[in-house]
Design brief:
By secondary structure, this protein is of the alpha+beta class. Helices cover 22% and strands 36% of the residues. The longest helix is centred in the first third of the chain and has 21 residues.
Length: 166
């Protein structure tokens, strides 16, 4: 009975080792706030970099051993860094999440409107928002300000600016 117990333990240990060797190492996901960057250090010089979904995260090689990951849109993707011989030196999951501070979301029924605040809040459309806005009717005065300013600077029917004496 004791011998059978020892054999069962040995078989269990071998199964665990084989399972661990067969499954890839899952590193903790790198979390990057949307519209922000994070620097990632590699263990060897970088040959090439790939991103699973470039609409979620973008990557720029900073130098031989560092990349900057930019959060572009909410979601999960992955980052693969290869050395100059084409061997993987890093495989990392990337999670793009909302910023932890400095943002306010206003919910009006099913619509959401996002604002970046520091110290004054300014409207900053984010992925997932509807194109139409509850503030659309009130914002036309601000949207076409530059056009109105140009047309107000010249007299009716004339394209020449007014100068001294006339």
């Amino acid at each position: 009975m004791a011998r059978q117990h020892v054999i069962m333990k040995a078989v269990s240990a071998v199964a665990v080792v084989i399972g661990a060797a067969a499954s890839p190492h899952v590193a903790r996901a790198l979390t990057v706030p949307i519209d922000e960057s994070a620097i990632v250090q590699t263990s060897a010089p970088i040959g090439s970099v790939m991103v699973g979904n470039p609409s979620i995260a973008d990557v720029t090689v900073v130098d031989a051993r560092r990349v900057a990951v930019l959060g572009r849109s909410y979601g999960m993707t992955n980052l693969i860094v290869l050395d100059r011989m084409g061997r993987p030196i890093m495989q990392q999951r990337v999670s793009v999440a909302p910023a932890q501070s400095g943002r306010v979301s206003l919910y009006r029924g099913p619509l959401v409107h996002n604002f970046a605040c520091s110290p004054r809040c300014e409207r900053t459309p984010m992925p997932g928002e509807e194109k139409g806005s509850a503030y659309e009717p009130y914002s036309t005065a601000y949207k076409d300000y530059d056009q109105r300013a140009k047309s107000d600077a010249t007299p009716s029917g004339s394209s020449a600016p007014l100068g001294p004496g006339g």
